[in-house]
Amino acid sequence: MSDLAQRVQELNLRFLLISFTDLFGIQRAKLVPASAVAGMARDGAGFAGFAAWLDLSPADGDVMAIPAAASLTPLPWQPEVGWVAAELQLNGQPMAQCPRRLLRRQLERAAERGLELRSGVEAEFFLLDPTGEQIADGADTQEKPCYDQLALMRRYPLIAPLLEAMEQLGWGPYQADHEDANGQFEVNWTYAEALTTADRHAFFKVMVKSLAEQQGLRASFMPKPFAALTGNGCHTHLSLWGAAGSANAGQNLFHDPAGELGLSVLAYQFLAGLLAHAPALSCLTNPTVNSYRRLAAPPTSSGATWSPGGISYSGNNRTHMVRIPDNQRLELRLPDGAAHPYLLLCQRHGPAPGAGGRLLRRLRAAAATPVERAPLRGDPLGTAHRAGRLGTRAQSRLAANSASSLRSPRSRVTCPARGWPLNRSTNQVRPLLSAST
User: What distances in angstroms separate CA 122 from CA 22, 56, 159, 189, 230, one per listed residue?
Assistant: First the structure.
């Protein structure tokens, strides 16, 4: 009996959803009876690849989804059914474009360098009426609705079971709140190794939508469903740890009490890579046309968009692309709700080649020069018009991705002559990057 079949038996599951996430982030699955799990664990579940978004033709053979037993998750709202993430094979060979495999291979490469990426995500979502055209709660009308207790508790019948389900699954949920837009919510759970977080992120979307449907609601992770309201972000928290078997196993390699803001040289090298390749990375973090309606958007009804428009970083300041909330991690605020759970984390795990050293010297500059706070109204970038701006068209980002060293060994990044120091008292920084590729 396979490990997966044994676990299915131990959990008294009657059925198993063998699931994969295609290139558009859509989850595809087959429902398999428990009696057939052993064979599926060995051979995989077959799919016609062209029927999903996998860049295949109708002439290609069956895609086989091989379940990853470690990801097995019982559905808390339907406990006789389990869900398991799968990786894809075509003609007996691993598919290069399988998103989960891409992430796993990146993590294996990082492990070879003694690094383990740990991540956490803040997956914001709207609760809409069944048509998806308006907010379900007609009483949720505050101009600044963030943390609205009454609006949160009106959704207690959904939020409480969601938190209980995550506790049951061992995710370590620790808070839920009403977010900055009317009808918008967020549930936070504990960070983990990146592949675990990606599996949980994929499952979270299914869980939220399923529980919402049970109550006659529609959950949406769309980046910008309403022009006047704050969009759905997917802020991603990142840190590198010593991999198992390495000299620093189990240690947070981003933390250094002697470093600027308590971060290590490695953390700033990682940050430099994010900044240098931001236009290219946005193809992964902001993959849809709707994504560009969230970035650098006009102020919303609450007064702020909480989304970046320029390439910059700061201390504990939520107006920048990268925030340093404490001395343990970086928060990348670029991703939105359309970001692919697996491809989102397929960035380089360490200093970007050709950019890390050059940018690091500027990121660690000692002189602090305050800059004017970006206004809440008007140009969302304020004085950051001198910074590298994130492209507002899909074509510009695809061009940046094609030219980036994320795809090729060489990188061409031009930087302004001035340094970009952090002002400790205001957590403001100068604009950071003017990228040309």
Answer: 21, 32, 15, 8, 15
The shares of helix, strand and coil residues in the chain, as percent rounded to the nearest 5, are 30, 25, 45
Nearest to 52 by CA among 98, 106, 85: 98
* Helix (H), strand (E) at residue 10: helix 3-10
DSSP helix/strand/coil, 46: strand
Name the pTM for this structure.
0.86
- CA 93, distance to chain mean position in Å, is 28
Instruction: Provide φ and ψ at 432, rounded to 5°.
Output: -105, -40
Show the tokens assigned to 138.
Answer: 């007609």
Interior angle at CA 34, CA 28 and CA 39, nearest 5: 75
Mean pLDDT within 182-208: 98
Say if residue 352's pLDDT is above 70: no
Give the residue ranges of DSSP H helices in 278-325: 278-285
Asked if 123 contacts 205 with a C-beta cutoff of 8 angstroms, the reply is yes
Determine the angle formed by the axes of helices 278-285 and 394-403, rounding to 10 degrees. 120
**Which of 130-139, 166-175, 180-189, 383-392 comes out lowest in average pLDDT?**
383-392
Helix, strand or coil for residue 184? strand
DSSP 132-171: SSSBS-TT---SS-TT-HHHHHHTHHHHHHHHHHHHHTT-
How far apart, in whole angstroms, are the C-alpha atoms of residue 306 and residue 311?
14
